[in-house]
Amino acid sequence: MNDLYAVVGNPIQHSKSPQIHSLFASQTGEALEYTAIQAPLDRFAEVVTEFFDRGGGGLNVTVPFKEQAWALAAARTDRARLAGAANTLYLDSEGSLTADNTDGAGLVRDLVHNHQVPLPGARILVLGAGGAVRGVLGPLLAQGPASITIANRTLARAEALVELFAGTTGNTRLSSCAFTAPKAPFDLIINGTSASLQGHLPPCPRR
Predict the structure, then answer these.
(1) Are residues 97 and 108 in the same domain?
(2) Which of 97, 120, 122, 168 is a plausible cystine mate for 187, CB 3.0–4.6 Å?
(3) pLDDT tens digits along 17-70
(4) Is the pLDDT of residue 140 over 80?
(5) Residue 105: which H helix or E strand, with range?
(6) Does 205 fall in a domain?
(7) Active-site residues: which are they?
(8) What is the span of the domain harbouring residue 86?
């Protein structure tokens, strides 16, 4: 019998997780079934419960449920606790729903190892202030960039993230602004907004 895994979100048609994990399973000889679940916006907790009641092995979580996934969990890894958002849910050895966040670790590894992007000393602009951005800030800060600017449509949300991560910045200057405000030159721009799912870009100045 195949192990059961899935990604849950709304919308979910954009997700390539089923194809990616199916390829991983084929390469490693794992027997698994990985599907995509579109959860109604008001039934996320019920969908999660139903999935694990049917013997599900683990869930990936995408927009807009990452913060709800964090809140729903009975236990959290350190990186999920720092992020305040989760992209992974699983049952631990005692059957407790556990939240993890691999967004930041995956992004940093891809940038550094696959694309050879130097992060130490870099000036980084991060677009968005939702669950995805919460997940990547900690690992990005750990790389020692010169600065990270968080730009968001609602400035208060960006300011809240700066306050949340204030004690983990090291020598990195962490600041916030509205989408229309970033002026300084940047070495790297990371789009963490949901607008990109429809191929749109936030209303940021081109220069």
Answers:
(1) no
(2) 122
(3) 999 999 999 999 988 999 999 999 999 999 999 999 999 999 999 999 999 999
(4) yes
(5) helix 103-109
(6) no
(7) 66
(8) 3-101
Tell me if 132 is assigned to some domain: yes
* Cα–Cα distance, 197 to 182 (Å, whole number): 23
Residue written as token pair 């907790």: 45
pLDDT one-digit tens code per residue, 96-121: 999 999 999 999 999 999 999 999 99
Report the sign of the C-alpha dihedral through residues 99, 195, 42, 40, in that order. negative
Last residue of a domain, one of 101, 125, 147: 101
Place of tokens 């599907």: 35
Question: Cα 57 vs. chain centroid, distance in angstroms?
Answer: 20
- 161 close to 137: Cβ distance less than 8 angstroms: yes
Structural tokens at position 9: 């979100």
Q: How far apart are CA 136 and CA 21, in angstroms?
A: 21
Residue 174 exposed, middle or buried by CB count within 10 Å (0-12, 13-18, 19+): buried
| 167 token code pair | 């004690």
Q: Which helix (H) or strand (E) holds 127?
A: strand 123-127
**Of 75, 101, 127, which residue sits at a domain end?**
101
For residue 29, count CB atoms less than 10 angstroms from its CB and return exposed for 0-12, middle for 13-18, buried for 19 or more: exposed
